[in-house]
Batch of 4 targets.
Target 1
Amino acid sequence: MSHLHYGDPEERKRKDEFAKDQNSEYFMERLNKFLLPLEDEMLRDCKAPKLPVTFIVGAPRCGGTVLMQLAVNTFALGYPSNLLARFFMAPSIGAWLQRMILNRAPSRTKEFNSSYGATFFPEEPHEFGYFWTSHFPVESIHYFTPQQLANIDKSRLLKELASMEKILSKCLIFKSLNLDFLITFLVNCIPTPFFIHVRRDPYFLAESIYLARIARYGTPDAWWSLRPKQYMALKKLDNYRQVAGQVWAIKTEIERQLKKVSGSNKMIINYEDLCRDPEGELSRYCEKISFLDLPLERIGPLLKPLEESNTVKLDNDESQKLRAALEEMETEKMW
């Protein structure tokens, strides 16, 4: 099955405003396959990225998208835009188009808005999900066994990243939920990886995921977003425990894998601190990555505080059920 198709049957239940246009999907897949010979030619002299590559990781609804928006509007970074992301099998071609069409265009991003990780303008950052799933095909869960990872074409991945870095003439930064369970793999694959773990109050993560289910599918009964290795066990629980378990499973796995990463190659940003002082948090990133011999060029104005969305939106009964589920899942042994 093509990696363009939904990775889980529940994904087909999307409400009309979130449904994928299958004709567009088919066209883009054909276009990308048509461009593969040129992509192969462009990768011929590429080996691996020479500069540090930043990966933003965190649970769904943690604030990773707004951090990515802030980063690429503040510093000269290479990133997959909504335009580039259409060329998921031919990222070199996408990078050239981004460089020629978008690099000199002023950003229209003023409010740093998004819809469940999706941004709105061609120049804004994209999760690049089809690119990552082309290298790491997702089946029923997003967790990969050592045997599955042993079969990944590391050479091709490194060549594509190196080509994007060369064409965009900047160090790369990515934010994708597909990366959350690949930290250990990336540490052993990328010459100089750097990880930003975005954290948020677990209650507001869980509440936002719960509300995303309703917004996306019209019901809280359908699973939304990242499926950890405990997915099948969690699916047997009620919706509150499913969401709470999803939060704790993802959080625990990210922290487990980040323990193996050198302190100089990682940092933590709390969503609440990012909203309160985005200038200070982005400056910390700039200082941290400069120790990897990468001074970042400032391209944007000073950042102003952002509106924090940590306000309870569920009614009291639902909120209490979700908090109780989080407390129960916090001590669950399956993590």
Target 2
Amino acid sequence: MKKLIQWVLFATLCIPVAAGAQQPDADHLVDHKPLMNRVWETFDQMMYKVTKRDGQTIYTPHFPESLRRLDGKTVSLRGYMIPIEPGRRHTVFLLSVLPIYQCMFCGQNGIPPMVEVSVAGGEKIPFSESPRSIRGIVHLNASDESRAELQIREAIVLAGDDEKN
């Protein structure tokens, strides 16, 4: 019974998106434009080193040289907010090249790149379904397992949708 419920949930959430079908509240996806840029492409190069220890699989982030060169640098990104905690306003959230309403585990090419964003000064940013432009400092996290491996710290939200990134 449990497997049947899991399959029904998978089919309901993922198959229509993967097949290109429109869901009733997904009209904004019709005009969705990929937001990949040079920074997103560099973030997408992060990989994991897989090892075994005491019968457990350990995933350790591996940052290639191109990604390590961004560590500590200020970058601009445009993406969709993915809340980590419930609420309308957020000081920390994920930023993705795909909107939250598009199943991130379906379709082609695996999971899209995402980055954890911490807003400067603890300012609370209202959630938006539209893409947001941010600027902040890249931090590569290889040790704190409770936080994302790719982070943008001291982020500010840029005004207007026509920001160049």
Target 3
Amino acid sequence: MPDFTTRMIEAMEYTLHTPSPQQFATLGGWISDAEQCLRWAGPKLAFPFDASVLQSLLETEPMDSYALLDQHASLAGFGQIFRREPDTGHLGRIIIDPHRRQQGLGQILCSELIRAGVRRHGFRSMTLWVYLDNAPAVQLYRTLGFVPEAREGAAGCQFMRLQIAA
């Protein structure tokens, strides 16, 4: 029998939206130190940063940014999709509200991002990088069908790909 938290998550509706400036500011508050910033956003975003201008700081290349909102329009998660290859999207900067982690929202967010990439761009595969010491994320991506691929990258990171059925 699922616990109360699991039942509540299943009962709530989550949807993707274009993030508002206020939601970017909220997102900025989720990043508490330089290491966390590097692991989430990569080397192009220096910490500390001004959360009120986070949107412009993250738009260093063409990408789609998405806010995962709950039924009360509260920010529950955030992610981006980059075009890396002609028919391939790349998921990046995936983050869940620290107070809502380990509740299944990562799977909801990633599933919705994949659907958005297919709908909006016709992607036939999705890729991502994951830190191997982030066991919950590695397990999530494997559950979604991502498989490791050999690719040179940052130390401790694994490149993964999901083939999307036509």
Target 4
Amino acid sequence: MKYKVFYKEDLSHEIELDNQQIKIDGKETTIDLVKLLDNKFHILENHKSYNLEIIHADYNLKRFSIKVNNNIYDLNLQNELDALLDKMGMSAAADDKMDSVKAPMPGLVLDILVEPGQAVNKGDNLLILEAMKMENIIKASGTGIVKSIQVKKKDAVEKNQLLIEME
């Protein structure tokens, strides 16, 4: 299975997984991967050590935020079918208009990353919600303009509580 991993706006790598073999941009590589916790891993690649933590995963949008040795990367995955649909102008990830943003879980608002009147696109970071001692980046599920923000920093919120109203 081949994937294209996009990061830092215009940079990407092609990853190919085949029978325990991993190729990055066509070059075979040997990676020793050890799962430490559900979202934490240790990777040894060419005698280099990496600590990897999955901060946020949206499997539907194929967007992920990971921390590698204390550097945070926002990734977007694209498989062969996604690439073909993009090439044909039929992107499966077409932007939808977003109505509002609700809390996916109870938690504490750590930071608000947008302001009223700001235009947002699908995948943009909106706010940071702490839940169960983990920081969760809440991202836009579509496009829109921030109409109002219904919470403040350090507010405790319940699941499905309105956080941001969009126009």
